[in-house]
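Task card 7
Instruction: Convert sequence to structure tokens.
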Amino acid sequence: MNLKLIAPELFVTKPHDLWAKRWLLLTAGDFKAAKFNTMTVAWGSFGTMWSLPFAMVVVRPSRYTYEFMEQYDSFTLAALPEKHRPAMQLLGTRSGRDGDKIAAAKLTPVASGTVDAPSFAEAELVLECRKMYRDRMDPKGFIRDAVAANYPGKRDYHAIYFGEILAIRGVAAYAGR
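Output:
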């Protein structure tokens, strides 16, 4: 797709719809070195932190993408058109440890403009981020039982990553005026 650079102050989206209903691909690693992994994410946020535009994502340590999030300093978030929903489903349910799930999803990794982590040629929106904060969720901080219920069994608590948004590229629908 032909994506245009969008200034953070002009970025327009319905955040809950994008995260919870449409989903995003979180990709970390190094495109040039061909060492990266992607996963579908439905939990996160966008906003301003420390006077910088940011995206916040969470990744369970059991996920293969976690290793890449820990090792590399950048990540991308990509929204795909609805016709790629089956690919998003596959990338959220298969592990990259078990084979080339990106090839199985029939997506095309491409170099990003400002970070080492790749994105996808099929994307209609790409946020390129550099990590600026990382922590582990502490269950002592859960105030509502409904939150704790997301961690049955092994209690695989997410790692939280804040990434400074260095570039936003998207189709016209994401560019406000």
